[in-house]
Amino acid sequence: MTFALRALRIFAPALLLSPLPAIAQDAAAPQVAPSQIAPAQIPAYAQPDDPWIYRGTDIPVDREWLFGEMPNGVRYAVRDNGVPPGQVSIRVRIDAGSLHETDEERGFAHLIEHLTFRESTYLGDAEAIPHFQRLGATLGSDTNAITSPTQTVFKLDLPNARPATLEESMRLLSGMVREPVLSQKNVDTEVPIVLAERRERGGPDARIADASRELFFAGQPLAERGPIGLANTLEDARADAVKAFHQRWYRPENAVIVVVGDADPQQLAVLVERYFGDWEVPGDPALQPDFGEPHPQMDVNPDNPVGMARVMVEPGQPRGFTYGVLRPWHQVTDNLEYNRGLLIDAIAEAVINRRLESRARSGGNFLYAAIEQQKTSRSADLTYVSFAPLSDDWKSALSDVRSVIARALAEPPTQAEIDREMAEFDVVFANQVEQERIQAGSQLADDIVNAVDIREAVAAPDTVLNLFRDMKHRFTPEAVHEHTRALFRGKVIRAMYLTPEEGEATPDQLRQALLAPVEISTSARADAEAISFAELPEIGTPAQPLSREPLGIFDVEKLTFANGVRALLWNTDNEPGRATVRVRFGRGWQDIADDEAAYAALGQMALVSSGLGPLGQEELDQIATGRKLGFNFRIEQGTFEFEGMTRAEDVADQLYLFAAKLEMPRWDVSPVARAKAAALLSYDSYRGSPNAVLARDLDWLLHDRDPRYRTPTPEQLQAATPEGFREVWSRLLKQGPIEVDIFGDFDREAAIAALSRTFGAMPPREVAGPAVLQVTDKFPEANDQPLILTHEGEADQAAAVIAWPTGGGSEGLPQSRKLQLLAEIFNNRLMDAMRERAGASYSPVVNSQWPLDVDNGGRIVALAQLSPMQVNAFFDAADDIAQDLAETGPTEDEIARVTEPMRQLLYRLQTGHTFWLNQLEGASFDSNRLAYLPSLVSDLTRITPQEVQALAARYLGGHGGWRMAVMPEMAVAETAGKQAAIGGGR
C-alpha cells in the first residue's frame, strides 16, 4: 500500500460546506446531484467479496470502494464521494507507457495520448476539449492525460455531473480510449504539436534529467525510454505503425477504470460495464516487456561497487552531486509486514536527513543534502544521496555528507531522535484520519491509479494510523539502524557530478572519492529535547479585544484591539483538523526602497529562519516537534504576509510564533549567509533557457524597470550584509497595521484568548511614513518592435510576451473579475491559433492580475514558449485576437466555454475555508472586500459579448501592448550585423 512516504505529502482538497451562502447558491449549485439518482440496474461484475486489488494481501479492505472485473479483463474501482459536491472524477489507466515501445516507436505512447483527444469515434476533429469545457471542465486541471514510462492515464474531473452528462461523458471517453481516429492526417497534425512540447521541455533541466536517467539506469530500457520520445521516430510516424502500438497495448486486459464522485457506486459501476464491457481487441495480449535490472558494467572491476560515473558540464547551472545505491526491483507481497518495514525505512531516512540539514546549517561544505529511497518505474530500487556543494571543492562537500551517513551506518540513532521523527509522522497520519471524509475524489482516484501502477494495494487512513501506532514498540535504535544499513546495501553504485566549469573532476576521480576512507562525523546528533512554549517569554501584557462584531458573512467575527490590531475569525468544521492563520502587516513592496532589492529577495528566503526571541532555526524545528505549524512568508504589492497551515490544538502556538517574529525578531547570521549562497549559486542558471530569463526579468520589466523588482545581481548580493539585512527588516517588521485572519477548524474562544496574549499584547505599531512607492502605475510604453533579450540555451527555443496595463484597487473588484473572463477567452483563442497555425503545444497562457491593496499595477499578460521562427506569428495572432475582441467581441459559445468552467470552479472552491479567506482578507480595514462579495459569482459567470468587447476596447485597444521576446543568443548574434537588437540580456 506504500503509504509511508505518500502519506507525508500535505494537500488541500476541496471540501464540503453546508449550507452554501446565498451569494453563490443560485448560480453555482448543480441542478441535480448524481447521488439523488438510484441505480437503474445492479452491476453484473462487481466483486465486493473478492476485490482484485487486495488479492494476496492481509491489508484490511477499504469497504468504501466497490471493485469489479469483467470477462474481457477490464478491472474497475468505484466509490461514492461528495468532495467536491456534484463532481465525478474518472480515470482510465492503460498499462503501457514509453517502456512498452520498440526502438522504432519511441514517442508513440505519448503521441497516442495526444491523438486520443484529437478525434475519436464519437467526437470530431478537435471537438473533445471544447465539449468538456462546455460541461464545466477546465483544460489541464479537469481534462488531462499523462504518459509515464509504465502507464498512460486519461483524466476527467466532471463538475455538475448530472446523470445525463455523466453517462454521455463516459460514452465519449470510452470512444476516445477504445477508438481514436489514428489517421495519417491526424498523425501529421499532432506530431508537430508533440515536437513543440518536446522542444519546450528541452534545455538544461531536460538534459540533466536525461543524463541522470541514462546513467543510473544504464543497461536497462529506462535509460533510453523517456516518454517524450525521439524527434526522428515521431517525424517518421506512420498511421499503420501507430495503430499497431494502440492495438497491441490498448486492450481490455490492460485497462483499469476508476470512478469516484457524488453518485451511487453501483450506478458508476453500471456505467463502466455498459461502455467498457463489450470492448474486444483481436489477438492475444502482448507479453509485458522485461525492464531489466541494474548490474555492474563490464569495464569496471566487479569487486568495485562504484561502477559508472559521469561528470556533466552544463554552463550556468549550479553544482550538484548525486550518487545512488541500486538494487533490483522485485514485485513485493504488499502486506502489513512489508509496510511496517517501509515505515521503519522512512524513519531511518528522516533521521539522516535531519542530521544532514543540521550539518548544512552549522557550517558544512554543502548548501543542502538529502537521501531518498525510490522504486522507479518498476526498474530499480534505489537510495539516492544528493547534495549541492558550496564551491568547486566538491570533494570536501562529498566527504562532509559521507561522514554524516557513515555515522548513521556505524552506530544506531538515539531513541530521542527516533521519537522526534515518529511524532512528526503521527501528526500527519492522525490529520489524514481527521480529514478522511473531506478527501477530494480526484485524489482518491489518483491513489488507486498509482497503486495499480506500482502493483500494490491501498489502505484507508485509519488503517495507516493504527498500523503505525500499533508498531511503535518496533521503532528501536537497533531496528532503525538495521534498516539504515539496508538502505545503503547494493551491488551497484553510480555517481554524477553536475558542474558549470570544465576540468573540475573526472569520472575516475568521482569513483575514487566515493571509495576513499571517510571519517565518521563527530557533530552532535539532532536529538535535543523538545522545547516547551510555556518556557518562552511573553509577548507583553495580555489585552482583551475592545470590540467583537459580526462581519456580515456567515458568522465571521471582526475583533479590534486597543493597539490597533484587527482580526477576522471564522471557525467551521467543514475541514476537520485544518485551520489557516494568516497575518497581514505593513505595506509590502510600497515600503521597500530602490536599493533594497537584494534584502527583499533574501528576506523571502531567510527572514523566518533567522529566528525569533530565544529560538534559532534549530530551536524552531525542535519546538515544532509533534505539532502542525507553518511559517510561510511572502511580499505582496501592498502588504507582507505570514501564513501557517495548522490545527485547532496548535493555533495558539502558531499565533505566538508570528507575534514573536514581529515583536522580538532574532537576527541569526547563518540563515542569511545560506540564502545569499543559494542565490549566488543559482544566478547563472537564469541564462539557460527562455523561461529562466522570464523568471529573472519579466516582473522587473513589467514594472518599467523599477529596481525593487529586479532579481538581485551577484554584485548586489555580494554587497548585502547581515547588518544591512537586520536594518531593513527591523524597519519593515515594525511598521504599518496588522490584521490576523484565522479560518477553519479551531476553538473560537481559545483563539481569542491566544490573540489577547500575543497580538493584543503588542505595543501600538509605528505609523509608517509616506510610502516609498507613491504611485504604482509604472508600466512600459507600447512598442511595435519587441524588446529582445537573449538566452544561452537551445537554439530552437524562444519565448514571447505581450502585455497591457489594466488597474488595481478593491473599488474595481467587479471589473477585475470580468477581466479574468476576458483573459480566459483570449487564452482559448490564442491556444487554438498557435496550435493549429504554428504547431505549438499547450504553452500559450493569458492571465489577468489586479492587485487589491494598491490602486494600480494590474495587467493582462499573454505568454508563450515557442520556436524562434514562431515569435512573429505569436505577436500577429495576439494582435489579431486583441483587435477582434475590441471591435466585435466574443461569440456566445466562447463565453460559455469560460463561464461554465468558472461556475463549476467556484462551486468547488467555495466549499473550503481558504477560498473565503482569500476573498475576505483585508476586510477589517477595507470595506470593499465585503461590499463586493455578493456579486462574486455573477461577476465571474454572467457576462455578455458586449461587456467583453467594451473591456477589450478599453484595455487591449487603449494601449498598443508592450512586447518582449527571448531569443537564442546565437540567433541574435547572427543577425546583429544586419539589425541591432533592442535591449539585451543581462
In short:
This protein has 986 residues and is an alpha+beta fold. The chain has 33 helices and 23 strands.
Write structural notes for this entry.
With 986 residues, the chain is of the alpha+beta class. It folds into four domains: 70-276, Metalloenzyme, LuxS/M16 peptidase-like (Cytochrome Bc1 Complex, Chain A, domain 1, 2-Layer Sandwich), CATH 3.30.830.10; 306-444 and 452-515, 2-Layer Sandwich (Cytochrome Bc1 Complex, Chain A, domain 1), CATH 3.30.830; 533-761, Cytochrome Bc1 Complex, Chain A, domain 1 (2-Layer Sandwich); 787-975, Cytochrome Bc1 Complex, Chain A, domain 1, CATH 3.30.830.10. The protein is 40% helix and 16% strand. The chain contains 33 helices and 23 strands. It has a seven-stranded mixed sheet, with helices on both faces. The protein has a six-stranded mixed sheet with strand order 1-2-6-3-5-4, sandwiched between helices. A five-stranded mixed sheet has the order 7-11-8-10-9, sandwiched between helices. Helix 18 crosses helix 21. The protein is globular, with a radius of gyration of 29 Å. The protein starts with a helix and ends in an 11-residue tail after the last helix. Keywords: Hydrolase, Metalloprotease, Protease, Zinc. Belongs to the peptidase M16 family.
